[in-house]
Every structure is written in structure tokens, then in C-alpha cells.
Amino acid sequence: MVEKFEQRIYGTVKGEWRLKLLQEDLHSLYEGKQLDIWDAGCGFGQMALWFAEKGHNLICCDISYKMLAKAKEHFAKAGCEAAFHQAPAQNIAARLPQQDLVLFHAVIEWLAKPLDTLEVISERVKPGGHLSLLFFNHHSLIYRNILRGGWRLQTILSKAWYGKGKKLTPPYPQKPEELIRWLKNNGYTIKAHTGIRVFHDYMDKSALEISDTDELMALEYQYCREETFRNMGRYVHILAQKEEN
Predict the structure, then answer these.
(1) What's phi and psi for 180, nearest 5 deg?
(2) Which of the ends of the chain has fewer CB neighbours closer than 10 A, N or C?
(3) Most distant CA pair in the chain: distance in Å?
(4) Euclidean distance between the first and final Cα of the chain, in Å?
(5) pLDDT computed for residue 165 by the predictor
């Protein structure tokens, strides 16, 4: 299961695209002064390692022993260090100092009470610090399943899918506008807002087979930060800065 997840998320063109856009949104922080960073749900540690290799200080946590073991392995191979904790982010938050940057990537969509946990995570962001929030998009799930038709239409109409999910499909996809509203109401300014895979995941196999990958990725890049399209990405990334005291 863990190996399948790693291959699906990072071993594909889709995974490479996700990393590219995340790194672009976070590039100014990556290139700046040395930061204290908490990766709250680090998974295999790709983003944490990217920062660590630049000399930033990392704390990494994940609930999965196998994923955390993979992250440790990646760090060891790169000759980098981090503090690793096997625990849910919300369980260790109170024990951690405030951070310059908190990465909260692909976690919130798995939580039955997402905003409660987001509040706990947000408390670990220093005044003037940043929160990087990546999440599975509610709008994309609805749109993609309606386009596929059949039995899915009644499932969407009845909202029978919500809270169930599948092995690799999160049960609680989030609406970008609701998370942005929460961030703004809690003293954050939005610094980046990017849709990840705004076209690719709506194309069926036959359409992908007759399409040039480079051209498709160029279109993805052209539209991924435009207002209409970014909220239709399979995932959405928001980088927000917390107000100073």
C-alpha cells in the first residue's frame, strides 16, 4: 500500500508536476534566511528534504510508521537531518515551538473535523510566518465524477460519497473558498493560490493518448494560477502569511 501510494503520488508526471508547482510557490522562502519548518504530515519527506538540503531546520511528523521510515531513509541518503515524530500532527502540536513555516500538505482532506485541526496547526505558525496548505479539492471531485457519468450521478446528487472515500481517495475533500475564508478570518494574507492539474485529470485515456504531454503541461502552467481555473485543480495549494502581532 505504501509503495503503491509513493509510486502514484511521486513516480508519475502528475507527481512531478505537483512538486514543481509547490516548489515554485515556496521558492522565495526556500531561498531566504534559515527557517524553522514543521512538516505536519510529511509523508515520504520530499518537500521537507528539499528545504533541509538548503540548510533549513526541519521537524517532520506522520502517523504512518512506514512513510516516516521512508522519509528517514531519504534524509539519510541525502546526508540531511531532521527531528522525526510518529504521531498525528494535532497530537504533537502543543509540544512544538512556533515555526517560521508550517507545511500542511494533503492531510486536511482525511480529517472528519478539518477546521478544528487547522486551528491547532495554525497556532504553531509564528506571527509573520507562513502556512503552506495543500488539499484535495471538493469541486474537482464533483466535476470529474459527473463527467464520467453513470451511477456516479446519483451518488453525487445524494452526497452519499461524502465521508467515505476509498483507499487512495480522501473522504473529506475541501472547498478552496471556505479554507481561504477561514485563513483571512484568522489573520492570514494569501500569498499564493495555485491549482494543481487543472486539466489533466478531466481528460480520459483516449484524449491523453492523442495529446502532446509538453503542450498539455504548458497549458496547465498557463492557467493554474488564474482565478477561474485554479479552483478546479485536483489539488489546490495556498500559501498564507500570518499577521504580525
Answers:
(1) -65, -40
(2) C
(3) 54
(4) 44
(5) 67
